[in-house]
Amino acid sequence: MKPLISIRAVTKKFTKGSTTIKPLEDLSLEVPRGEFLSLMGPSGSGKTTLLNLIAGIDTPTSGEIFIDGRDISKLSRAELTKWRSHHVGYIFQLYHLVPILSAYENVELPLLLGKLSKSERKEKVLAALDLVGLGDRADHRPSELSGGQEQRVAIARAIVHDPELLVADEPTGDLDRNSADAILGLLNRLSKEHGKTIVMVTHDPKASAAAHRALQLEKGRFVEEGNLINAH
Amino acid sequence: MKLIVLALKNLTRHRVRSLLTILGVAAGMFLYASVQTMQHSLAVATETSAADTTLVVYRENRFCPSTSRLPEHYQATIERIPGVREVIPIQIAVNNCGASLDVITFRGVPPETLLDYNPGIKIIEGSFEDFAGQTDGALVGQHLANRRGLSAGDKFEAVGVNVTVAGIISSDSPQDENVAYVHLPFLQQASRVGLGVVTQFNVKVESSDLLESVAGKIDEIFESDQQPTNTRPEKAFFAETAKQMIELIGFTRWLGLGAVFAVLGLVANAVLLIVRGRVKETAILQTLGFSRFSIGLMVVFEGILLGLAGGLIGVLGSSAFFYFKSFTLGNEGLTLALSPSLAVTLSGLVVAVALGLLASLYPAWKATSRPLVQSLNA
Predict the structure, then answer these.
(1) Does A101 touch chain B if contact means CB atoms closer than 8 Å?
(2) For residue A170, what are the domain limits?
(3) Per-residue pLDDT at A229 exceeds 50
């Protein structure tokens, strides 16, 4: 079966003043459909950069990134924006809900880009909120929710348009243990029951253990027990 | 439409910030609309058109109504000039010959000829018969009546002249809205100029292309008379005689321009601050798939909505202000009613929206020009 994500010899470089920084170097990776993959590594290892490349919010300096057979490394900024609106759900560490909007309105945001009617949007938003267990909090503003609830709203927002790929940047990094476990359970369910492919960056070994597969990044390359590997 | 709703939510849910900006815009637009109202009122009073057929015959080299004294018998001579349709002798008494905001002008006219000469006059309160049958009766322009709180039956005094309000009039001529018409002999006696002396003649000619030739003929006839005349079309007479007032109003253009720049700066600053405070939020929306164009458009909508809301308050506030206060600028016995107009209201709203749009273009560009990853890490 063709993998959903196929990364081939990707390098990312940028310059800061006179220094050239390479957060990722000649990195390859394949992620099958429906897999829940965790990326671990110390700060500066390049895991968030890799996540951003997979999510299409950044582009590689060289190499190719195929998502569902499409090379997104060649897309323009505008094309990437359009692609993201259909294919990716992004979950942030600090939830990043729009504070002036209710939970319902936050979840509705990705659907405003499409041509759905108000009632169709409502159906989808309520289904997503029900899925994350917050059907009764639709009218609450982010400031009226706990951290765990905010992250669940953010997950509902990430899945409401039914993307095949979810990327999560330290989704439990700002939560207490119980809330973190609930979020990990939810992500697991999305992968197992709904067939979502999930790539999650985390520092937390317990969070990483919830994934199907865990990869360690160091200095822009995958390592396993200190050895460089190609993560196929 | 969805973007407008989002922009509206952004504004309504940051109430204090939006309200302060809207109030600032409203203040600027109030000033702008007020200046425009003055300019528009002046244009109506001075711009000539093909429909203008009135000449004013004034004493040569005189600047104030009290110094222009013409023999009333000139009327018969003027009436005989070919092209002249109607002549009305007018005695004028004013409370202030200089530029003033509260000028009261009495126009003494033969009552029996007033409506024939000026059929545009409508009696909106009281009656013409009361005016005609009452020596001290006065027909008061509605603008003056509003300003002074006068109704039919009231008595009022100005310039040492005591009159009884016999009626309130409206007219298609702005000048009529600001004066009190009284009986000519009554005013000649009350203002002590004496019977047989008038300030001016208003002359109606058959068509506007006769204005110049008839004016020339009148001045030629009385050139070597004891009281030589200076005859000009009514609007040109206004433009020349009320020069001080016109210069003063001309100067207010700069205030209007200042108001426009103030509004522009205010909206630009407010929208820029909004955008700066929402760098991450904007990045999140982009991550969700909102294009740079749609985010820029949302910022522009916010600017337009701020401009429109402030414009509505400021421009309509200005219209209401001029409507209820009935301000009249006067100079040398001529009056200029500062009246709100639909054209000024509509153009004020268009300017407010345009300023909102213009002021939000740079913030809109700023909101979307930063690389997405950089904004997410901001």
Answers:
(1) yes
(2) 34-59+76-215
(3) no
Structure tokens given for A167:
């990327």
Query: What is the ipTM score, two decimals?
Result: 0.86
- Exposed e or buried b for every residue in B157-172, given b needs 16+ CB within 10 A? ebbebebbbbbbbbbe
CB spacing of A81 vs B2 below 8 angstroms = no
Helix (H) or strand (E) holding B59: strand B54-59
Q: What is the DSSP letter of A231?
A: B
Whether residue A65 lies inside any domain: the answer is no
- Residue B103 corresponds to which tokens in the numbers above? 């000028």
Residue A1: the pLDDT is 63
Q: Angle at the Cα of A199 (from A194 to A202), degrees rounded to 5?
A: 125
∠ CA B321-B325-B330 to the nearest 5 degrees? 115
CATH number of the domain to which A101 belongs: 3.40.50.300
Q: Is the pLDDT confidence value at A230 over 50?
A: no
CB-CB neighbours of A162 under 10 Å: 14
3-class DSSP state of A130: helix
Specify the amino acid at residue A32.
P
For B42-52, the pLDDT digits (tens) are 888 777 666 77
Place of tokens 């997104």: A72
Q: Is the separation of the CB atoms in B37 and B346 below 8 Å?
A: no
Q: Report the gap between the CA of A206 and the closest CA in chain B (Å).
A: 26
- Does residue A78 belong to the interface with chain B, where contact is any CB pair within 8 Å? yes
pLDDT of A222 reads: 86
d(CA B178, CA B203): 20
Tell me how far the alpha carbon of residue B319 is from its chain's centroid.
Answer: 10
Contact A81/B376, CB-based, under 8 Å?
A: no
> A168 to chain B, minimum CA–CA distance in Å?
13
Place of tokens 């609106």: A85
pTM, full prediction: 0.75
Is A81 a member of any domain? yes
- With respect to residue A100, please indicate whether it lies within any of the assigned structural domains: yes
- What's the distance, Cα to Cα, between the start and end of chain B in Å? 29
**Residue B37 pLDDT > 60, yes or no?**
yes
A96 located within any domain: yes
Domain count, chain A: 1
Q: Residue B40: CA atoms inside 13 Å, Cβ hemisphere, count?
A: 20
Which single residue is written with the structure tokens 């720049």?
B261
Q: How far is CA A74 from CA A58, A88, B68, B73, in A?
A: 11, 17, 87, 96
